[in-house]
Design a protein that fits this description.
Layout (H helix, E strand, L loop, with lengths): L23 E3 L14 H11 L5 E3 H7 L9 H6 L8 H12 L4 H13 L15 E2 L2 E2 L3 E5 L2 E4 L33 H10 L5 E4 L9 H8 L12 E6 L1 H4 L10 H13 L3 E7 L9 H12 L3 E8 L7 H13 L3 E7 L6 H4 L3 H13 L9 E6 L3 E11 L2 E11 L8 E5 L22 H10 L7
Helix pairs in contact: 1-4, 4-5, 7-9, 11-13
């Protein structure tokens, strides 16, 4: 960004300099987190047990600025970032607890952790088998191409986050098993693939979190998209939780100005830059520095769109979503998606029945203006595509969910309504069966053929 177009830090009096040092804690540092000393030894041991199976990472900004330590364990950001006993099956919890109490070495602990992780559906929706694209007969391991218009790219430098969400469906990226990880640092292959696929209009940079990367790496991936041969890639999306976990990235980090200059260059070059922000609760948007970060990003011409899953213990309340969407609109952001918690990892602790999820969405959307009703959902990112719950109905005495595809592996499926039997206990798409006497959903045969072609199990 040139000095003439530099986006200044607003003179708000906010103590930005007090929170610029990035200090991170993992499961090896639980005893170093001072506020945890308020908890009982039993509670701290439970955290140790869970964090040896599921990834844990948190930083000082989250600890000091976002969590109300007088509201533990109910504080939503505490639930969002710190491990809880209920995240593991009781039998798995007990096995790991006994192993740790026995004084087992790290090799034994890691072996049991890997065994437990294997039972947590580390790669849902066929993403390893069905989504990896090919170039010149070679699989591009750091990419996914599930929908015609959109390519996902996982830069190798962005395979961590500033903190980890306890419910993250990409938890397998963070547990140290290379077989469970998507990552690529081959920018040239990305650009070559995009150049060959003129149907692709959107590139989504994801991870991990691409905003942990230095700006110079982002430049290598993104600036070439301004070349004429990649003109068809109209939209650049950046999927990130950084506005919650480290807003300093856009305000006080050493290369914050260079990052914003890159955003501005992409926008001026004719690209739609969609900053896909992940907010789970309004509490994440209350600090002065996050509001300054939002202001600075918007000043580049980027559009901030907001999305999150509905999860138990954090935001399973329509009033939370109502306030969150209102706050986003107030700050100039666009509510985009309410997702259903995916069938992976600590799902057992966070999942909410689909019927309740739909009712929370319906109640929340009733109490906001049209500018917040851009939020779509509840949406399940299942194997066949993004499936939205549109309602619950009854016909000839049979109750059913009304569903439709927002996105599909076959574009012809999109916007076609279909029905599943009402099940008050169902929490995910593969819990559902067709309604009204139908043996299969309209897409089932075609999706099964796609799965067999790519060597994947048929998992909805």
């Amino acid at each position: 960004m040139s000095s003439s177009s530099m986006i200044p830090v607003a003179n708000t009096g906010a103590p930005y300099s007090e929170t610029t040092r990035f200090q991170v804690y993992t499961h090896r540092h639980l005893d170093k987190i001072k506020p945890l000393q308020k908890l009982t030894p039993e509670q701290r041991f439970e955290m140790e047990v869970v964090s040896n199976v599921l990834p844990f990472r948190v930083n000082d900004y989250v600890i000091n600025e976002l969590i109300d330590w007088n509201n533990i364990p109910d504080d939503p950001v505490f639930q969002l970032t710190f491990p809880q006993r209920g995240m593991l099956d009781p039998k798995d919890f007990d096995r790991m607890a006994e192993l740790l109490k026995s004084g087992a070495d790290r090799k034994q602990v890691n072996a049991l952790a890997k065994e437990i992780q294997a039972g947590l559906n580390p790669h849902p929706a066929g993403q390893q088998e069905m989504n990896v694209p090919m170039l010149n007969g070679r699989p591009l391991e750091g990419m996914q191409h599930k929908y015609r218009e959109t390519v996902l790219f996982f830069p190798s430098q962005g395979q961590v986050c500033h903190s980890y969400c306890t419910f993250c469906f990409r938890w397998a990226q963070f547990v140290g098993d290379k077989d469970l990880r998507f990552a690529s640092n081959e920018a040239d292959l990305l650009h070559a693939y995009l150049a060959e696929h003129k149907e692709v209009s959107d590139l989504l940079l994801t991870g991990g979190d691409p905003m942990v990367m230095k700006t110079r790496h982002l430049v290598n991936y993104l600036e070439p998209l301004l070349k004429p041969e990649l003109e068809h890639v109209q939209t650049i999306r950046i999927g990130t939780k950084s506005l919650t976990f480290w807003p300093q990235r856009f305000v006080t980090d050493d290369d914050a100005d260079e990052l914003l200059a890159l955003f501005e260059k992409l926008v001026k070059g004719g690209k739609h830059l969609a900053f896909m922000a992940h907010f789970n609760h309004w509490q994440e948007m209350e600090t002065p520095i996050v509001r300054e970060a939002i202001r600075r990003i918007r000043a580049t011409g980027a559009i901030i769109r907001c999305q999150a899953p509905l999860v138990q213990h954090i935001n399973d309340d329509p009033k939370v979503w109502e306030r969150m969407w209102r706050t986003q609109v107030k700050l100039g952001m666009v509510p985009y998606y309410m997702f259903v918690e995916r069938d992976t990892g600590a799902k057992r602790y966070f999942e909410v029945p689909l019927a309740k999820t739909y009712e929370i969405y319906r109640q929340a959307i009733q109490h906001v203006s049209g500018l917040a009703r851009t939020a779509r959902g509840p949406s399940m990112s299942a194997g066949p595509g993004k499936v939205e719950i549109q309602g619950i109905t009854e016909f000839n005495g049979e109750k059913a969910f009304i569903l439709r595809f927002i996105q599909g592996r076959n574009a012809d499926w999109v916007q076609r309504p279909f029905f599943a039997k009402y099940d008050p206990e169902a929490t995910w798409f593969d819990d559902l069966v067709p309604a009204f006497g139908q043996e299969k959903f309209f897409f089932s045969d075609e999706y099964e053929a796609m799965s067999q072609e790519r060597g994947a199990d048929v998992i909805y």
